[in-house]
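[step 3/7] fold_predict: job queued, chain A
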Amino acid sequence: MPKFDIEKWCAHVQNYRITFCYVAPPVVVLLSKHPAVDKYDLSSLRMMNSGAAPLTRELVEAVYARIKCGIKQGYGLSETSPTTHTQPWEEWRTSIGSVGKLLPNLEAKYMTIPEDDSEPKEVPVGEVGELYLRGPNVFLGYHNNPTATAQCLSPDGWFRTGDVGYQDKDGNFFITDRVKELIKYKGFQVAPAELEGLLVDHDAVNDVAVIGIESKEHGTEVPRAYIVRSEKSKASGVSEEEEAANIVRWLDGKVAYHKRLRGGVRFVDAIPKSPSGKILRRVLKERAKAEAAQPKAKL
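[step 4/7] structure written:
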């Protein structure tokens, strides 16, 4: 396909009896919610592999419940040539949410993310940190940019990925968000991807992105959700204001106190994303600034 279309994708799976497919998180969201999916026979699918951004357990389970096809994840970066982790097919359901196990000839560790100039320290299994990688596939540096190279590549070959996550006792690696995208609420770190994974499970939500906004009221950064409202929600007769309040209350019951949507909910027609499916949070942050400058403008 010259570009992705959920209806055409479903038709191709049905007509060509596709057994395996690489997908990005926006496709997984559509498979969990789009009405077109029910019109096609997708039973030939044996497995899908997702990358580009983290998937939550809730989303993977929702797709499996609907089309009876598992989704495994992998992980890598351009700087690592590219893949470093993948879930074995047979483990897709025993480690849902994981990007899998480290591939051969690689080393990995999770390190603290200091708020000051102190040196990062390795964290034990199960604790959250920034993922560092080392191996023969790691790049030698950025072309003609020694400053950027020095910021992410140590003299002994450890590469700072900029991704946050943890490793479990069974050697499964989890990626929860980007270091630069973490929302810092009064000293607590909030991962936008975690909140997005929960919110997409709500009946009123077709798609969602969470960003941090500066709040004068709270004197800190707070999470705000930008949501594409579902047709079911629109048809319910509930106003945007009521639905936004409903969503905030619903999430309050599922997350720790510091992770609540103190920045509120804003409804949008679409979530800005790159061709690979990554959320363009920069675009939403610019929108948030414009909204703050014109608080009375209709959203």
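[step 5/7] annotate
The CA atoms of residues 215 and 221 lie 6 Å apart.
The chain has a mean pLDDT of 93.
exit 0
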